[in-house]
Amino acid sequence: MAVPAKTVLAKTRRTLVAAVLSLCVLIGSIVLAESGLASSATLHGPRSLLAAPSARHWRTGGVECRVTPRGSTSGRPRPLLVALGASFTAGVGAGRPSQSWAIRLAELIQWRAVTIGVPGAGYVAAGPGRIGPVSREVIRAQLGALHPGLIIVQAGHDDLRIPPGEVAARVASLVRGLRAAAPDAGLAFLTVFSAPDAAGRLLARELSIDSAIAAAIRRADAGAVIIDPLRGHWRFPRADGGAGLHPSSGGHLVIAERVARALARAGVVPAAASRPQPATVTCTRLAAASTGTR
After folding, report:
1. Whether residue 179 is found in the same domain as residue 260
2. Same structural domain, 63 and 168
3. pTM of the full structure
4. pLDDT, position 3
5. pLDDT value of residue 241
6. Which residues of the chain have pLDDT under 70?
7. Are residues 243 and 263 in the same domain?
8. Based on the structure, what is the number of domains in the chain?
9. Same domain, 50 and 29
10. Which pLDDT value is given to residue 206?
11. Residue 12: other Cβ atoms inside 10 A
C-alpha cells in the first residue's frame, strides 16, 4: 500500500530537525569545552599545564616551569639554570610548555631549572596582559634567593616596533641588573628568531634590532655569551605546517641542542647528554604582574 505523500514529508522534516538539533548540541559542547579551557586559569588561579593539549592555548599568558633532574647527584646539589624569555621560552609551538627549548636544555645538561616565558615579551615590549617585559620576569624569578649558576635571556623578536636605541638602553640596564642580582652566575643571551620567509624591510628590521641587542650586551658585560639564531641562519622544524615563527616540539629540541653546544664551547656548561634525560617538570600559568618596570 502506498504511503501518503504528507506522511513521507512529515517524517523527512522530523529527521532533518533531529539532525540539526544533534549538530547544535555537538557544536555547543565543543564551544563550551574550548571556553572552559581558556578561562579555567582565570577562574581557579594558577594551574598545572602539563596536561594542556597544545601550547597554543597559552599564547597570551606567561608560564613558569621548574625542572628537577632524576637520579643520583653524588651528594651535591645540581647547578641551577634560570631561563627568562618570550614565546619560545613559554613553549609555544610545542605540544605543551614542558617541551620548550629551555626545559629540554636543562634535561640535556642535567641541571635544575626555573624557566619563565611570556609570549609577546621583549626587552621593552610587555606583551598581551602586560606580564612582561623581561625585567618583570627578573623580579618574579627572585634571583637573589635562587643563586643560579647560569641565566639565559631569550628575547628580541617582539621588540621589532621599538627604536633600536631604546631597546639597547633596556638591554644594558637588564644586564647590569642581572649582574647585580646574581654576581656569580654566567650570563647568556639568545637573540632574535625569525620566520623562515622573512625578507626585505622585515629582515632589515630584525637585523637592526639584533645588532642593537648584541652590541649593548657586549658593552655591558664582555663575558656574556651571545647566541644569535638570526645571523646563524638556524633551521629547525616549525609548527603551523612549517611556515610559522615558532618551533614544533622537535624544533624546540634542536634549539636546545644548539644552545647546549654553544654554552659548552664557551666553557659555561659541561658537554650535554646526547638526548634529554628524565626530569620532573611542573608548570603553572602566571598572573599579571603588579610591580616592576614597564
Report:
1. yes
2. yes
3. 0.78
4. 46
5. 80
6. 1-60, 72-75, 288-294
7. yes
8. 2
9. no
10. 97
11. 10
